[in-house]
């Protein structure tokens, strides 16, 4: 919950937390928050630009994912996710075989055979 309070004081809420997946995990409770004035002795630390940029930048996992995407783009392969052959190859490389891959390969072979037969019929 995000709430910005414009003045100091006590604020009371009645909170309902409901779970859409598990029955019985719903929770209802009263919450009281005390907002105090800023501490006059508080010191605000000035951070360097590099530190601020590091915090605002991508996290470790996100940076790794972006690095993998850039490597794939540099390969020169057709990395379009619309290419079913490439998707089936990626799945196979990951150790996953799908029945759709077999059906797609059979349909493609059938279409190529039909195209070859049609090509031979016109040259005779």
Strand and helix layout:
Blueprint: E1 9-17, E2 27-35, H1 49-56, H2 60-74, H3 84-93, H4 99-123
Antiparallel strand pairs: 1-2
Short description:
With 124 residues, this protein is of the alpha+beta class. The protein has helices at residues 49-56, 60-74, 84-93, 99-123, and strands spanning 9-17, 27-35.
Question: How does this structure look, described?
Answer:
The chain has 124 residues and is of the alpha+beta class. It has 4 helices and 2 strands, in the order E-E-H-H-H-H. Strands 1-2 form a two-stranded antiparallel sheet. The chain is elongated, with a radius of gyration of 30 Å. The termini are far apart.
Largest sheet: 2 strands, antiparallel
State the strand order across the main sheet: 1-2
Count every beta strand, where a strand is a DSSP E run of 2 or more residues.
2
| Helix content bin | 40-55%
**Unreliably modeled segments:** none
List keywords for this structure.
two-stranded antiparallel sheet; 124 residues; alpha+beta; 4 helices
């Amino acid at each position: 919950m995000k709430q910005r309070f414009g003045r100091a004081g006590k604020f009371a809420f009645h909170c309902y937390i409901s779970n859409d997946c598990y029955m019985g995990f719903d929770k209802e409770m009263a919450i009281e928050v005390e907002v105090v004035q800023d501490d006059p002795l508080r010191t605000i630390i000035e951070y360097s630009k590099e530190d601020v940029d590091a915090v605002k930048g991508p996290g470790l996992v996100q940076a790794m994912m972006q690095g993998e995407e850039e490597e794939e783009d540099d390969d020169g392969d057709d990395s379009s996710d619309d290419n079913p052959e490439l998707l089936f190859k990626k799945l196979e490389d990951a150790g996953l075989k799908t029945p759709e891959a077999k059906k797609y390969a059979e349909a493609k072979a059938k279409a190529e055979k039909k195209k070859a037969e049609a090509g031979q019929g016109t040259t005779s």
